[in-house]
């Protein structure tokens, strides 16, 4: 953990006079200086990924998109400051109030900002040493592997002599989710995915990947500002739209009106093309949340107690009828 005293040598390399410092979360600091207010973060993603994030933010600001936390170079022009083997990264502080997706005005502003971001999120030229994962053509392979995982996890469970409470509940629902995974693969294979992925790769599009309400700030101008690019990578823009819709609807009983609001506001700025909706449908159909808890349980990726896994499983299997209703309405309106 970085201490307040420990970051002073880092801030000296930005050539600022520090007036006040406050921790926001572990290894993230609010810093008031002679040059304004900033956010300083100790990088935990590796130097290559942090250089990619800096490249993304610089690309966006250089091309005129300013609804983000702009990157700040050190006084010698370096994108990162290195100290004792750790990389530090500074951005401008974005003032405003937390975005609340329960408020339609906030949600609409966030959807418009996401679309505007996607207009600029292409043609990226990265700094030397910057690296990030590229997902353009990989999604069919990824979903196919995850669908196969569910069958493997089912077989593993069936071969056990004694089952835990989690495993009993798992077997009661896994066939439903295996079917959903196979249906999602069929939808993706029947779409124009390959051509859309090829076009995205040619344009070098990139995504934010974590478009939750916590990563939008509503400014005094009532516009939404997008922050925290820790998970950005090369990908199709529809993956961001899918994540925004899913994360919103899980909190609002899969209300299709919320989905329509997001898509309507997004399309005012950067309209989605009809073939892209078919790809979105495949992502909506795939049981990602159920696969994630399965993966964590059977591969012991998360050291939760039995109660923790049961709680996550219940969350993944909750409101299935409402999800099915949403999928049907989405397919009828957008996916055919």
UniProtKB/TrEMBL annotation:
What is the species listed in this Swiss-Prot or TrEMBL entry?
Answer: Formimonas warabiya
What protein name applies here?
Aminoglycoside phosphotransferase domain-containing protein
NCBIfam families, from UniProt? spore_CotS
PANTHER family linked: SPORE COAT PROTEIN I
| Cellular component aspect of the GO annotation | endospore-forming forespore
Task: Check the record and name the SUPFAM superfamilies matching this protein.
Answer: Protein kinase-like (PK-like)
* Chain ranges of the Aminoglycoside phosphotransferase domain: 26-247
């Amino acid at each position: 953990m970085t201490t307040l005293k420990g970051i002073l040598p880092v801030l000296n390399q930005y050539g600022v006079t520090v007036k006040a410092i406050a921790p926001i979360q572990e290894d993230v600091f609010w810093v008031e200086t002679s040059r304004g207010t900033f956010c300083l973060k100790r990088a935990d993603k590796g130097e290559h990924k942090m250089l990619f994030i800096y490249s993304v933010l610089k690309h966006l600001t250089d091309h005129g998109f300013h609804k983000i936390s702009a990157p700040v170079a050190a006084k010698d022009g370096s994108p990162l400051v290195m100290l004792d083997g750790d990389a530090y990264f500074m951005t401008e502080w974005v003032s405003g109030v937390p975005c609340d997706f329960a408020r339609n005005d906030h949600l609409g502003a966030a959807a418009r900002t996401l679309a505007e971001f996607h207009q600029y999120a292409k043609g990226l030229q990265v700094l030397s040493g910057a690296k990030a994962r590229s997902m353009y053509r990989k999604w069919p392979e990824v979903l196919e592997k995850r669908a196969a995982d569910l069958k493997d996890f089912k077989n593993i469970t069936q071969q056990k002599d004694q089952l835990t409470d989690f495993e009993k509940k798992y077997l009661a629902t896994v066939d439903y989710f295996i079917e959903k995974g196979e249906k999602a693969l069929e939808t993706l294979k029947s779409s124009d995915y390959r051509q859309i992925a090829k076009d995205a790769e040619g344009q070098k599009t990139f995504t934010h990947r974590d478009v939750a309400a916590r990563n939008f700030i509503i400014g005094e101008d009532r516009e939404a500002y997008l922050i925290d690019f820790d998970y950005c990578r090369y990908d199709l823009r529809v993956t961001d739209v899918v994540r925004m819709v899913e994360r919103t609807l899980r909190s609002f009983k899969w209300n299709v009106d919320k989905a329509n609001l997001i898509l309507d506001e997004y399309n005012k700025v950067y309209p989605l093309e009809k073939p892209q909706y078919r790809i979105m449908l495949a992502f909506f159909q795939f049981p990602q949340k159920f696969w994630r808890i399965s993966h964590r349980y059977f591969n012991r990726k998360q050291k939760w107690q039995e109660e923790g896994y049961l709680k996550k499983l219940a969350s993944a299997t909750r409101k299935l009828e409402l999800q099915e209703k949403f999928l049907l309405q989405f397919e009828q309106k957008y996916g055919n």
